[in-house]
Amino acid sequence: MYTSLKKVIEKTSEDIRSKGLWKTEREIQSPQGAEIIVNGKRVINFCANNYLGMANNPAVVEAAKQALDTYGYGLSSVRFICGTQEQHRKLERTLASFVKMDDVILYSSCFDANAGLFETLLGEEDAIISDELNHASIIDGVRLCKAQRYRYLHHDMADLEAKLKESQAQRIRLIVTDGVFSMDGEVAKLKEICDLADTYGTVVMVDDSHATGVLGAHGHGSLEETGTEGRVDIITSTFGKAFGGASGGFTAARQEIVDLLRQRSRPYLFSNSLAPMIVGTTQYILDHADTLDGARKRLHKHTLTFRTAMNAAGFATRGESHPIVPIMLGDAKIAATMAADILAEGIYVIGFWYPVVPQGKARIRVQISAAHTDEHVQKAINAFTKIGKKHGII
Ligand SMILES: Cc1ncc(COP(=O)(O)O)c(C=O)c1O
Q: Which sequence positions carry the modification called N6-(pyridoxal phosphate)lysine (predicted)?
């Protein structure tokens, strides 16, 4: 019986290989950080979502050990059976006040938060209006929901408005967007989106995974950055990036939304509780959120230095001020070869090409961290300049 499945798998695998899209994972022999050991060689890491340098911060590691000692390793349960510790509710309340929402519900990941959101709230008489570049977890969450689907052109407010007009017959309409687009480092036009939502009487949901802890004067995210706090109805986000980088996610929303999610959201009901150590460590990070201002300032200073130097050198970048800095190269082979050459210079970056990004828009995505030093950033600029010249890009 298995022979037929094996044939199908081999055909699909060959298809992926023939397009040059087969991914190989490089093994890291060190904790995550600004400098890591890759294949036995020390390199400077410019491809992690470790925005605030929390992933291997000694105080964070210590907080994790303490949480382990106090609350144990595992819970062996989902939340509603015997998997809710006092610290889960405490973290939910702390997060709710951090993102200025009524309440928060924790998930094992933001992927799960997005997977469990839409089908809980919406039915076939409703509509979801989604930016075409939204994250895969939003796309999958939307697929699970029976609501009518509308996709608007990325960042295109005229097209969003057209879709709002088209969907006027639907009972509830939910505009869905990433707060920051992960492949482009662009912040969503939340002010314009909220204005359109007001005009057309729709609800707004933002996935703030790349903005929580990163954007806004206090790190509250893309809503704080764009002055739209209080205008968005639902936020989802992750602890897997700025807030420690381990795992875990959440949905923050109005009280009745969170209450219903606790009753009906399938990844919450049917998947294990967020591990005690992650809950305790995230609580520690949030309790010290006001001490993160220095890290956030360093992050943005490095980002400005890098973006300015790269643009001056003649590279085409995307986005304006986010620490995700895509270096646009167009051709997949150039992106792959340049990333390998830059790694040989001791700078770890990754090329992205179709289908992860649109056809012909291959790029190297650089991600800056507060853990980087001025010297790290300069070395990255030097390596890009040297390899960019070698390949005739600049
Ligand atoms: C915009 C966005 N949403 C959701 C996720 C998924 O987050 P998690 O790793 O917590 O599942 C990611 C991670 O890559 C992301 O970039």
A: 241
Q: Which of residues 267, 287, 307 is at a domain's end?
A: 287
Q: Which of the 8 DSSP states describes residue 353?
A: -
Three-state SS for 218? coil
pLDDT tens per residue across span 205-245: 999 999 999 999 999 999 999 999 999 999 999 999 999 99
Give a yes or no: residue 372 inside a domain.
yes
Interior CA angle at 265 toward 92 and 63, to 5°? 30
* Whether residue 111 has its Cβ less than 6 Å from ligand 1: yes
Over residues 71-129, the pLDDT tens digits come to 999 999 999 999 999 999 999 999 999 999 999 999 999 999 999 999 999 999 999 99
The catalytic residue positions are 182, 210, 241
Query: For 240-277, how does the pLDDT look when each residue is reduced to its tens digit (9 = 90+)?
Result: 999 999 999 999 999 999 999 999 999 999 999 999 99
- The rounded distance, in Å, linking the Cα atoms of 322 and 325 is 7
CA–CA separation, 353 and 284 (whole Å)? 37
Give dist(CA 284, CA 276) in Å, integer.
12
In short, whether 207's Cβ falls inside 6 Å of ligand 1 is yes
Q: Which domain holds residue 193?
A: 58-287
208 is in an annotated binding site: yes
CA distance 34 to 28: 13
Q: Name the CA radius of gyration of the chain, rounded.
A: 21
Which value, to the nearest 10 degrees, does the dihedral of the CA atoms of residues 122, 127, 133, 136 take? Answer: 30
365 is annotated as contributing to ligand binding? yes
Mean pLDDT of 311-335: 96
The domain boundary, picked from 264, 287, 310, lies at 287
177 and 315: one domain?
no
| Strand pairing report for 35-38 and 41-45 | antiparallel
CB of 240 closer than 6 A to ligand 1?
yes
Residue 16 has pLDDT above 90, yes or no: no
Q: Pairing relation of β-strands 347-348 and 173-178?
A: unpaired
